[in-house]
């Protein structure tokens, strides 16, 4: 977006990242530790998004701090999308050259009547395949279409191929939460260090940069 500025930092050989991004629409700062314990401190001004990001951190077993201010007097769109952008950038930066990771992750996750499937490849080739119909346009005041916008922003900025498919479900809250938790579990699997990989980049090309 026009007028954006990024400030990025990575701590030594750790899998941590800190990114700040400010535009005329949002001001966001994210701290991420891929090897965390599921702790989350999230304040975006969008209650449902805070709830989903907290679940994402918990089930991906990453530590996440999100501080966001956005033009919520308009709607939740810019804040939700831009948090996805910055979180994606943080994941990409924290992974570095991706040596020794499992790369692929998959989860099939039930949430009451809802069942969501997520498959993820840390490929360097961003793509989102989204097959998640919602039967309601809103969850409280939150537009359900923003769930897809969040994951598209995350996938394209993290450089991952992400497929999310709803297998069953009618309750919009359950559907959204199942999607976030499925992606979290898939991400947890994909970023894990593979003890058999001996620090190699998991690609026959020798690179995961697209």
What does this molecule look like?
It is a single chain. The protein is α+β, with helices and mostly antiparallel strands. It has four helices and eleven strands, in the order ββββαβαβββββαβα. The strands form three sheets. The chain has a five-stranded mixed β-sheet with strand order 1-2-3-5-4, covered by helices on one side. α1 runs parallel beside α4 and α2 packs parallel to α3. The longest helix has 20 residues.
Q: Which strand order do you get reading across the main beta sheet?
A: 1-2-3-5-4
| Topology, number of strands | 11
SSE arrangement, N to C: EEEEHEHEEEEEHEH
Global shape: globular
Which structural class matches the secondary elements? alpha+beta
Keywords:
five-stranded mixed β-sheet, 4 helices, four-stranded mixed β-sheet, single chain, 210 residues
How does the SSE layout of this entry go?
Elements: E1 5-9, E2 16-22, E3 26-33, E4 40-43, H1 47-60, E5 63-70, H2 77-95, E6 104-111, E7 114-121, E8 127-131, E9 138-139, E10 142-143, H3 145-158, E11 161-168, H4 172-191
Parallel strand pairs: 4-5, 8-11
Antiparallel strand pairs: 1-2, 2-3, 3-5, 6-7, 7-11, 9-10
Helix pairs in contact: 1-4, 2-3
């Amino acid at each position: 977006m026009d007028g954006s500025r990024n400030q990025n930092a990575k701590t030594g050989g750790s899998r941590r990242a800190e990114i700040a991004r400010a535009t005329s629409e949002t001001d966001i700062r994210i701290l991420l530790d891929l090897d965390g314990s599921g702790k989350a401190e999230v304040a975006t001004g969008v209650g449902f998004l805070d709830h989903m990001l907290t679940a994402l951190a918990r089930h991906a077993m990453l530590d996440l701090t999100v501080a966001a201010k956005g033009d919520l007097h308009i709607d939740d769109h810019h804040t939700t999308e831009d948090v996805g952008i910055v979180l994606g950038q943080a994941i990409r930066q924290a992974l570095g050259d991706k040596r020794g990771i499992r790369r692929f992750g998959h989860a099939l996750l039930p949430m009451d009547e809802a069942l969501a499937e997520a498959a993820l490849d840390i490929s360097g080739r961003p793509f989102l395949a989204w097959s998640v119909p919602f039967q309601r346009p809103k969850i409280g005041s939150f537009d359900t279409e923003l769930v897809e916008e969040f994951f598209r922003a995350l996938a394209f900025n993290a450089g991952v191929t992400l497929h999310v498919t709803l297998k069953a479900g009618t309750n919009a809250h359950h559907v959204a939460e199942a999607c976030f938790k499925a992606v979290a579990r898939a991400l947890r699997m994909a970023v894990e260090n593979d003890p058999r990989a001996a620090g190699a980049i998991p690609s026959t090309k020798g690179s995961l940069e697209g």
